[in-house]
Each structure stands twice: as structure tokens, then as C-alpha cells.
Write a sequence for this structure.
């Protein structure tokens, strides 16, 4: 029973992180109709930024969080300008396919640039806070994990407020719901695209900093988060923020349970099997809407 | 075969398809056959052979991704399954390597046909997510396999090659080279006939107007299973041949690095074109060999090439060259107009 509770706790923590990574992916798909494969690279960039601040200046992960968010925001805007914007409205080619491939190309370039700069070694970043929190007898969670979950949930709440209450956030929702109507209402669509890419990349960058102290920062640090984010995104339904968050927690808990009862090795194959079953029943994921209604 | 070709040619004229220039194709083929005899350099032949294997793989992939418009990003796992099955059956059961090659293809086709069914229900991007994560799951499963069957991250080694035991190493390599070339040619002819047959037309119709094609009696399920099956069979045979030539196969043939290389080959050449995969493979192989000293840094260059191509010429080089060639010919024809102007009307 204790190990069950332990699994639930760690499932909730990983679920929060998955939500943080995937919400960006779903936002971008909702507004830009682009599956941003470069988000994995943003996790990597976030981790590298916090590592550089730590090893170069001795600054802790909290400074890393802010710096990584700023840097990845800029990266996101630049990627939008270089890799996505030129493709919008090109005749004779499938935009979703070309944007998928162009962001994939960006991800390859970034991961290999990181490999050239830092080499293949694993770089450790210390946790935000040391120590463990004992919940009940035999069930404990490290304070760093508490911070991880806390930051992730705070970010998600802030995103929710941003999307539903602020001028810019409403702009993003409007563009996602009805592009032409949004344009008619005078919403600067290009700026909304930049903002979406920036915000989503910053969320992935923050996830990267949080993950950096659990795993290590290495040139393929972005691969597994990207894969998990893709699985969560399909499961939840692309373009649905609520679906993504629900799916992230389900996947996080499921993964913890599978690791507990079958061993870590089986977590991915079983997850994959679950995804196939879900897709056979609901081809657009849990909350995905079949056609244009999104966010 | 001949009647199919004739019919294809007549349909081609009707539909306004380009017919390949027989002389150019023949010259290219002669050059490719003569390469190992003229350029007697082990390393060069080895690289050319690898390029030929990738050409087979990329052609099979193009059948789905380009011509079928099915977003399959799991073809490398299919390739690896072919390689592993061919390796395993010849290692453990001592099956004839040629038969093992076919078994690799069949196993790959079977796995792929199963994947085809959930993919059929998915729209565009979801299909790419599912197939991509399928490939990653296969890769991670093989890496974490501790049962000794697949050899984990080190892979299988000591896979028996095709039966050329009596030959000298050089002659053996040449024999492999010509077989690989044969595979490329057979695949190319098959794909040419396939895309110009009613099946290929149905596939393109499903890509361009799924609802209309289905309403005209094209079965999406049937077409998808056929496409996945044939494409995977070809990829599986390529995988088996790879395993037999190198004597080893490991999970390193899958993953993001190789995937980016192959996607670059397909996109640079031109997705959905007949010559695209072959041209793209050759070009990217040349670039990657020219930058051999950079080691892993090559992928930066390949990634940049991919990015530049997709942004500036999303349809790839082959359509670009074909358009350029057509424009050049029109331009030359324009020049001739004043001389034979009277005949203009009669033509």
C-alpha cells in the first residue's frame, strides 16, 4: 500500500511536468497548426542555460528558471520567424507537414550545436532545495519534486489566467478559434503567433530547468521529454488545453503504476499500447475536437 | 510485364506524365554498374553501397510519405525489424541468407500492416505522432532488452552474410554492391509501375481528396494496408541486406539522428517524386562524406540544408529542376519560333 501511495505521489509530480511541456505543444498546434518538434530542444536549451549559470556564475536554479524562460522565449520567436513564418500560405504544399519538418530540422541543429559546444557528457545541476518531505510513514517526496510540481502547477494556473483574462491571451484564444474573424477584429495575427511560440517555448525551457536536476543535461536531454510530450499530446487531443492537462496527469500516474507493478522497462510499451487503444476508440484523443473547434 | 509497361506508357501519354529519358537512365545505370570496376577503392565502394541501401529504404518510405501522403515517421523501426529478423533467423535457425532476407521483409510487412490499422483512423499529424512514438518505443525496447535476444544497445553481430564465401574480399564487396544496385533497380521499377498503375492513381486520389476518392469506390483501408505492406516489405528487405552486408545491426540505425538524415534525403530530393529519394540520398551522402572530419557536427549542416530546402523549395529539388528544365526548353523553343513560324499553326 505504501508503494502504491509512493507511486501516486511520483505520478502526480511527473504528470505536472508533462503538463507543463505539452501545454506549449497544444497551444502552438491550436493557433499555428504546427506540431512544434523543436520543443524538445527547448527543454535542452533551458537545461543548458541553468547549467551555464550554475557552473559559470554559481547561481542557483531559481535564477536559472528566470533566465531559461527568457532565453527560450527568444528562441521560440526566432524559430517562428525562421522556420514557420515563411511557410504560412505557401501554395501547393501541405503546411502542417512542412512546418513539422522545418521545426524538426531546427531541433536537429540545436541538439547538435549543443553537442558541439558542451560535448556528450552529462552535466549535473543541483536541486532547488535539498532534503525530503515525509508525507506519511514510508511515503516521502524530495523537496525538489515538490518545487517541480509547484512551479509546474503555478505556471499552468498563470497560463490559464493569461489565456482567459489578459488582452494578449484572449488574442491567442481568438486566433485559435477563428483566424479570419480574429484578423477582422484587428488582432495582429503575426504578433499572436510570435507570442504563442515564445510562451510555449518558455514553458518547455522551464520544464528543462526543473528536469535538469533530476536527470542530467546532455545533448539528447530533449529526446525523451519530446516523446512523452507527443504521447500526452495525442492522448489528450491536440489543441485542447484542458485535455492536455488531464492527459498529462493520467499518463504520469499510469507510468508510475506500470513502473511499480511491471518495472520501468515496460512503462513505454504499455503506454504505447494504451495510446493505440485510445486512438482506436477516439481518433482525436480524449478532448480533441474532430474539426475546427479548438482551445 | 511488357504489356503493363505498354499500358502504363499509353496511360502516361493520356495523363500527360513525363516519360523517363531512356538514354539518360541507361547511361546512369551503366555508370553505376561500372563504378566498383573503375574506382577500385574499398572505402568509396562501401559508401556507395550504403547509399544504395538507403536509396531502397527511402524509395519505400517515399511511397507512403510522398505518394500516399500517409505521415509515417516510423519507417526506420520497420527497417530495423527487417534487419533483426533476417539476422535472428539466420543466426539461430541457420536459414539460408537469401530466404532470411525475404523473411525479414515479410516480418516487417506484417508489423507494418498491424500499425496501418490504427493509423488509418488518424488524421495527418496524429498519424505522424503515433508512428514516430512507435519507432521510439521499438528503439527503447531493443536498447533495454536484457534477454540477450537482440543484444541490447550493442545489437546483433556475427550475422552470416550472403553466400560468397569463396570470393576474395574485393570481389565479395563488388558482389554485394551489384546486388544492392539490383535491389535499387528492382525497387525503382516496381515503384514506377506501382505509381503509374490504377493502384497508384487510387493512392494519390486518396491523398489529394480522401472523401471524393472514397465516394468513387477507392477503399482507404485496402489501399492503406497495401501501401504499408509493400513499403514495409521493401524496407524490411533493405534492413536484412544491411544486416547481412555489415554483419551487424544495432539500435543506432534508429533514433533521431538517422531519422533526420533520412528525412533530409527525402525532402531535399523531393517528396512524392519518383527520382527525388534517389537524388536526395546521393546528394546528402556526398555532403555527409565531404564533411566526414566534422563527425557528429555533420548533422548541423544536414539540419541546416533540410531547413533551407523546406523553407525555400518545400517540394524539393526534383520538381525545381524539372520546372527549370521545362522553362529552359520553352525558352529555347521561343527562340526558334521566327524560323519555323508558318508551321506553328499546323502543329
Amino acid at each position: 500500500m505504501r508503494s502504491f501511495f509512493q507511486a501516486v505521489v511520483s505520478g502526480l509530480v511527473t504528470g505536472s511536468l508533462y503538463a507543463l511541456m505539452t501545454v506549449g505543444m497544444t497551444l502552438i498546434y491550436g493557433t499555428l497548426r504546427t506540431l512544434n518538434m523543436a520543443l524538445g530542444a527547448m527543454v535542452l536549451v533551458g537545461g543548458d542555460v541553468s547549467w551555464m549559470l550554475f557552473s559559470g556564475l554559481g547561481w542557483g536554479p531559481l535564477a536559472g528558471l528566470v533566465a531559461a524562460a527568457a532565453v527560450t522565449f527568444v528562441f521560440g520567436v526566432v524559430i517562428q520567424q525562421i522556420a514557420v513564418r515563411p511557410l504560412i500560405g505557401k501554395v501547393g504544399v501541405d503546411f502542417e507537414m512542412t512546418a513539422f519538418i522545418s521545426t524538426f530540422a531546427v531541433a536537429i541543429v540545436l541538439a547538435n550545436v549543443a553537442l558541439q559546444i558542451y560535448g556528450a557528457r552529462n552535466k549535473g545541476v543541483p536541486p532547488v532545495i535539498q532534503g525530503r518531505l515525509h508525507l506519511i510513514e514510508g511515503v516521502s517526496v524530495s523537496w525538489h519534486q515538490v518545487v517541480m510540481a509547484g512551479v509546474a502547477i503555478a505556471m499552468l494556473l498563470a497560463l490559464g489566467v493569461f489565456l482567459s483574462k489578459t488582452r494578449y491571451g484572449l488574442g491567442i484564444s481568438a486566433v485559435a478559434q477563428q483566424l479570419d474573424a480574429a484578423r477582422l477584429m484587428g488582432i495582429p495575427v503575426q504578433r499572436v503567433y510570435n507570442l504563442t511560440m515564445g510562451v510555449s517555448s518558455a514553458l518547455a525551457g522551464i520544464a528543462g530547468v526543473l528536469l535538469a536536476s533530476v536527470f542530467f543535461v546532455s545533448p539528447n536531454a530533449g529526446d525523451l521529454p519530446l516523446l512523452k510530450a507527443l504521447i500526452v499530446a495525442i492522448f489528450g487531443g491536440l489543441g485542447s488545453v484542458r485535455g492536455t492537462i488531464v492527459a498529462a496527469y493520467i499518463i504520469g500516474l499510469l507510468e508510475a503504476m506500470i513502473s511499480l507493478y511491471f518495472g520501468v522497462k515496460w512503462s513505454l510499451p504499455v503506454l504505447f499500447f494504451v495510446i493505440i487503444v485510445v486512438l482506436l476508440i477516439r481518433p482525436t484523443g480524449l478532448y480533441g475536437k474532430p474539426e475546427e473547434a479548438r482551445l | 510485364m511488357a504489356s503493363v509497361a505498354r499500358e502504363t506508357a499509353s496511360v502516361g501519354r493520356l495523363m500527360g506524365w513525363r516519360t523517363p529519358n531512356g538514354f539518360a537512365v541507361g547511361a546512369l545505370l551503366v555508370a553505376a554498374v561500372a563504378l566498383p570496376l573503375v574506382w577500385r577503392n574499398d572505402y568509396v565502394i562501401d559508401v556507395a553501397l550504403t547509399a544504395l541501401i538507403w536509396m531502397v529504404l527511402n524509395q519505400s518510405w517515399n511511397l507512403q510519405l510522398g505518394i500516399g501522403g500517409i505521415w509515417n515517421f516510423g519507417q526506420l523501426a520497420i527497417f530495423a525489424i527487417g534487419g533483426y529478423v533476417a539476422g535472428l533467423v539466420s543466426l539461430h535457425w541457420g536459414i539460408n541468407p537469401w530466404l532470411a532476407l525475404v523473411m525479414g521483409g515479410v516480418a516487417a510487412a506484417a508489423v507494418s500492416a498491424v500499425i496501418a490499422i490504427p493509423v488509418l483512423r488518424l488524421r495527418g499529424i496524429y498519424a505522424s505522432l503515433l508512428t514516430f512514438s512507435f519507432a521510439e518505443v521499438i528503439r527503447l525496447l531493443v536498447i533495454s532488452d536484457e534477454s540477450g535476444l537482440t543484444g541490447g544497445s550493442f545489437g546483433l553481430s556475427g550475422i552470416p552474410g550472403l553466400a560468397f564465401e569463396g570470393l576474395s574480399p574485393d570481389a565479395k564487396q563488388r558482389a554485394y554492391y551489384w546486388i544492392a544496385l539490383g535491389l535499387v533497380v528492382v525497387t525503382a521499377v516496381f515503384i514506377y509501375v506501382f505509381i503509374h498503375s490504377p493502384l497508384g492513381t487510387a493512392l494519390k486520389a486518396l491523398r489529394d481528396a480522401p472523401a471524393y476518392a472514397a465516394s468513387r469506390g477507392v477503399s482507404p483501408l485496402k489501399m492503406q494496408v497495401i501501401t504499408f505492406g509493400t513499403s514495409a516489405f521493401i524496407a524490411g528487405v533493405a534492413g536484412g541486406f544491411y544486416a547481412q552486408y555489415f554483419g551487424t545491426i544495432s539500435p543506432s540505425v534508429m533514433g533521431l539522428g538517422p531519422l533526420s538524415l533520412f528525412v533530409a534525403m527525402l525532402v531535399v530530393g523531393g517528396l512524392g517524386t519518383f527520382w527525388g529519394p534517389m537524388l536526395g540520398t546521393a546528394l546528402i551522402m556526398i555532403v555527409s562524406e565531404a564533411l566526414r572530419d566534422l563527425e557528429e557536427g555533420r548533422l548541423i549542416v544536414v539540419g541546416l540544408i533540410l531547413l533551407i530546402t523546406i523553407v525555400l523549395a518545400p517540394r524539393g529539388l526534383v520538381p525545381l529542376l524539372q520546372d527549370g528544365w521545362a522553362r529552359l526548353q520553352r525558352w529555347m523553343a521561343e527562340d526558334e519560333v521566327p524560323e519555323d513560324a508558318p508551321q506553328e499553326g499546323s502543329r
